[in-house]
Amino acid sequence: MTTVAHLMTPQVPHLSAHCTLQEAARAFNQSGLGALPLCDTGGKLLGVVTSHNISRAFRSLGDLANSLRAQHLMDPHAPRIRAHDSVEKAMAQMAIHQTQYLPVLDGTGVCGMLTSTQIGQAAPKVQVEELVGHVKSPDDVAQTEAP
């Protein structure tokens, strides 16, 4: 079984909640990734910021974008995955949430990022039964959330 830890980009830059969009853009340029975690001072994940959202803010707002912080553009409900989870679970998360990236957690802190490109380039042998096991229909979710 291939795990997320085998494919992820480790030690990605963490953006702070007070990070300016200029600082975030520099971090994106240095990392080469399309999404970065936004973390508190203890390293706990607060959300995910994408380079697409930052460039869109600069295109649409011009100089006004300089008054924004990365936290204004983050997705606080972005899906996440654990380093020891299977690639199948990561693929299911990406499919369910229609995303191309997942912050990778080790305990409570972010230890890396996983992208759909990394999965595709690695071409892991996927266990279809396990992949299907991680995907729940809306009816299954409603039944598990019912009191």
Description:
The protein has 147 residues and is of the alpha/beta class. It has one domain (4-137): CBS-domain, CATH 3.10.580.10. It is 40% helix and 20% strand. The chain has 7 helices and 7 strands. The strands form 2 sheets. Strands 1-7-6-5 form a 4-stranded mixed beta sheet. Strands 2-3-4 form a 3-stranded mixed beta sheet. It is elongated. Mean pLDDT is 85; it is low at 141-147.
Q: Can I get a quick summary?
A:
This protein has 147 residues and is α/β, with parallel strands linked by helices. It has helices at 4-7, 21-31, 51-61, 87-97, 116-122, 128-134, 138-145; strands at residues 9-10, 15-16, 35-39, 45-50, 81-82, 101-106, 109-115. The chain has 7 helices and 7 strands.
CATH architecture: Roll
- Give the overall shape, derived from the CA principal axes: elongated
List the helices and strands in order: HEEHEEHEHEEHHH
- The CATH superfamily title: CBS-domain
Count of helix runs = 7
What key attributes describe this structure?
single chain; 147 residues; alpha/beta; CBS-domain; four-stranded mixed sheet; three-stranded mixed sheet; 40% helix
List strands and helices in order, with pairings.
Blueprint: H1 4-7, E1 9-10, E2 15-16, H2 21-31, E3 35-39, E4 45-50, H3 51-61, E5 81-82, H4 87-97, E6 101-106, E7 109-115, H5 116-122, H6 128-134, H7 138-145
Parallel strand pairs: 2-3, 5-6
Antiparallel strand pairs: 1-7, 3-4, 6-7
Helix pairs in contact: 4-6
